[in-house]
Design brief:
alpha+beta; 4-stranded mixed beta sheet; 158 residues; 6 helices; Endonuclease III, domain 1
């Protein structure tokens, strides 16, 4: 499912910031030298396959991530949706990893994250025995990594 959304983010602010910080990774410089049709420079902005190249500037990338993740009209998007949305307009190496990390640090996402684990069963306390050997419990723990041909522990409580 391709996510389509007209960007309401004020792109001109981000574009101005990208122009100010025109440092480029080696792979981008090499691609520009090859004069590949998929990469070109226009008005101080490098475009790759029609998307704006974002240089290695943490502040600019964080701004793009924030403006495309904390959307009032769409809520906090999942990783795949956010990647699709950002890739419509921007490109940079490790964008997928940056998105994953940004979402792991997002308090609202972690707070509202759906747990895919079974709920833990209720604990029921054991009755207190009247004397020794009236109640016995046995726990077998294993398999464990072998040590002297032993890979389990037996715990017996009376």
């Amino acid at each position: 499912m391709m996510l389509r959304r007209k960007i309401t983010v004020n792109k001109s602010d981000i574009v101005k910031e990208i122009k100010r910080n025109n440092t480029r990774e080696q792979e981008v410089v090499q691609a520009l030298k090859k004069e590949d049709r998929l990469i070109w420079e226009e008005h101080g902005i490098v475009h790759m396959e029609g998307r704006i190249y974002v240089s290695n500037n943490k502040k600019t990338r964080e701004k793009i991530l924030k403006k495309n993740h904390d959307l009032v009209d769409m809520g906090h998007l999942g990783q795949q949706r956010m990647l699709e949305l950002i890739k419509q307009n921007y490109w940079w190496p490790e964008s997928k990893e940056n998105i994953r990390k940004y979402m792991q640090e997002c308090f609202k996402c972690q707070q509202n994250k759906v747990q895919h684990q079974k709920k833990v069963g209720e604990l029921h306390p054991l009755e207190i025995p009247q004397g020794p050997w009236q109640g016995i419990s046995i726990d077998i723990i294993g398999p464990l990594s072998r040590s002297n041909r032993i890979d389990a522990i037996v715990v017996i409580i009376d």
